[in-house]
Amino acid sequence: MGWSGQRWTTLDQLREKHTNTIRDDLGLTGIGTEPPFAIGQRALLVRSPQGNVLWDCITLTDDATVSALRELGGIRAIAISHPHYYSCVVEWSHAFDAAVYLHEADRQWVMRSDPRIEFWSGETKPLWDGMTLIRCGGHFDGGTVLHLAGAGALLAGDILQVTQDRDWVSFMYSYPNYIPLSAAKVDRIVGAVEPYEFDRLYGAWWDRNVRSGAKDAVRRSAERYKRAIRG
Known about the structure:
The structure is a single chain. The protein is α/β, with parallel strands linked by helices. It has a single domain (11-230), classed as Ribonuclease Z/Hydroxyacylglutathione hydrolase-like (Metallo-beta-lactamase, Chain A, 4-Layer Sandwich). It is built from five helices and 15 strands. A hairpin with a 6-residue loop joins strand 12 (161-162) and strand 13. Helix 4 packs antiparallel against helix 5. The protein is globular, with a radius of gyration of 17 Å.
């Protein structure tokens, strides 16, 4: 948010001055907008034999992006970590005739309903080819991560925020206002991913990934965080 508050635009206006970049990001296909828009996150395309999954979402979708992703196998489903990345998910889903998986705990934050949106409940939702959505909570009740069993990877958005040195993660209730999460909510996040094996963790921005030892990084980061908020 700028000093003068929020400003609004349209998708057509965005297309006039912005384009999408598609490139490798630690073995996955990243899609990000240039110049950066809003908070500048990038999405990730998980390519899979039974259908590709788009993880998280960006605002800009255009003909060039749709064509490029169709050449990579298209999109079977879109899964989003939390409402900050809902963005233009309806336009994305229509472009690929893709289902959209959102946790029902965040239903109130969906500002545009659509038949392609499927709300799931409970703590996990198995997809296909070893992919599982895991409800962690965090700064939204339905905060979700995506586990890739075959790749030994966790796609975390900013539910687990990769730090600048990319050897640690952290946690926040409100990033704009610098309000931390409680120790109990941090424990819930760590407990939710504990049963799953992963060596890499992908954050929400280009190259903001824990390249190896990610599960240990989550454990020790949580302990460091809790020591800090205890004072």
